[in-house]
Design brief:
alpha+beta; N-terminal domain of TfIIb; 2 domains; binds zinc ion
Length: about 170
């Protein structure tokens, strides 16, 4: 060791080894069950109120948490430091991209799931979910940060979901 040990950030899921996507603490607090959500520190909530006596913890861009989207992996969130992990059963919602059967929600803002996509394909022969989402996401629509376990836009997982639905039909 020629340099001082720096804290190595955990960017890969400790369970499956895939690189996790950065996710906001807000997302974890919104989607983890109550008893786990309280473990997530949130600068806004824990703020001293700005009186300057004790000093607030500054909000940093580094959220400190990552989302694992591997289907075969039970871990949904992990901390970049400290080793905390949160598994599927610790969330209030079903993480559609991690399931292989059932409804499998994909778009949490407008309610598209593998099940609804299949139904569309069955009844109309095509799926308009992507178009529907694109039309609605700007008006103002999306609440991905607090609705979707990934904390981000669902279009990618909906595209994958359409392929999955087509294969399963
Ligand atoms: Zn994983």
């Amino acid at each position: 060791m020629t340099v001082e040990t720096t804290t190595e950030k955990q960017v890969r899921c400790p369970a499956c080894g895939e690189t996790g996507k950065r996710v906001s603490a807000l997302t974890l607090r919104a989607l983890l069950k109550e008893q786990y959500a309280s473990e997530i520190s949130d600068a806004e909530d824990s703020c001293c109120g700005g009186n300057g006596e004790t000093g607030c913890n500054a909000v940093t861009d580094e959220t400190g948490y990552r989302f694992c989207d591997s289907q075969a992996c039970d871990v949904v969130y992990f901390a970049e430091e400290g080793g905390a992990i949160f598994k599927k059963e610790q969330l209030k919602v079903v993480v559609g991209v991690k399931e292989t059967t059932g409804d499998r929600p994909l778009c949490y803002c407008f309610g598209h799931s593998v099940a609804t996509i299949k139904e569309e394909l069955r009844t109309k022969g095509r799926c308009d979910a992507l178009q529907d989402i694109r039309e609605r996401m700007n008006t103002p629509g999306c609440r991905c940060e607090t609705e979707n376990p990934s904390g981000s836009c669902c279009l990618g997982s909906v595209s994958k979901g359409i392929k999955i639905a087509q294969e399963e039909l």
